[in-house]
Amino acid sequence: MDKYIIGVDIGTQSTKALIAGTGGRVLAQASVAYHPDTPKPLWAQQDAQVWLEAFLRSVRECVAQALQQGVRQEQIAGLCISSLYGGAGIPVDADCQPLYPCLIWMDRRATAETSMIRRQVDLQRLFAITGNGVDSYYGFTKMLWIKHHEPQIWEKTAWFLPPNSWIAHYLTGELAVDHSSAGNIGGVYDMQRHCWSDEALAMVGLDAAKMPPRLLESTDVVGTVTADKAALLGLSQGIPIVLGGIDAAIATFAGGVRKPGDHVAMLGTSMCWGYLQTETESGRDLVCMPYVYKGQAQRYVFGGAATAGGAVTWFVEQFCQAEQALAAQQGVSVYTLLEQQAASLPPGAHGLVFLPYLMGERSPVWDAHASGTFAGLNLTHTRAHLYRAVIEGIAFALWHNMQAVGERRQGLDQRLVVVGGAVNSSLWMQIIADVTGYPVYTIEEEVEAAMGAALLGAVGLGLVSEEQVEQGWTHVACRAIPDEQAHQAYQQLFAVYEGLYPAMRASMHALADMRGG
Question: Tell me, what's a Pfam family for it (predicted)?
Answer without folding.
Answer: FGGY_C
